Amino acid sequence: MISTLPVSLALVCFIGVVCGMAIATATIDACIAKRSIEVKELAPELQSLRGVCLSFGDLFGFFVSGFLVHLLGPQEALGF
């Protein structure tokens, strides 16, 4: 793996991850808004389901990243 990761490459990786998450979140919100207009009774349930799924996804990501940092070390986990 990578033993030393340049700061500029780490910054580009972080920006890429944040942009990917923002695009996914905007797409999901647009789908929920469209479906909420079509079926008004499901609007609260869809928002709650989105929040629960997002929370579980965040927890899973934190778990995996913590495991990788423990297993590989901080530099290698960031490079991964």
Automatic annotation (TrEMBL):
Keywords: Membrane, Signal, Transmembrane, Transmembrane helix, Transport
A UniProt-annotated Pfam family: BT1
Signal peptide segment: 1-20
Record's subcellular location: Membrane
Domain of life: Eukaryota
Bilayer topology: Multi-pass membrane protein
GO CC, alphabetical: membrane
Database matches in InterPro entries: BT1
Residue spans crossing the bilayer: 6-28, 49-72
Major location (coarse): membrane
UniProt protein name: Uncharacterized protein
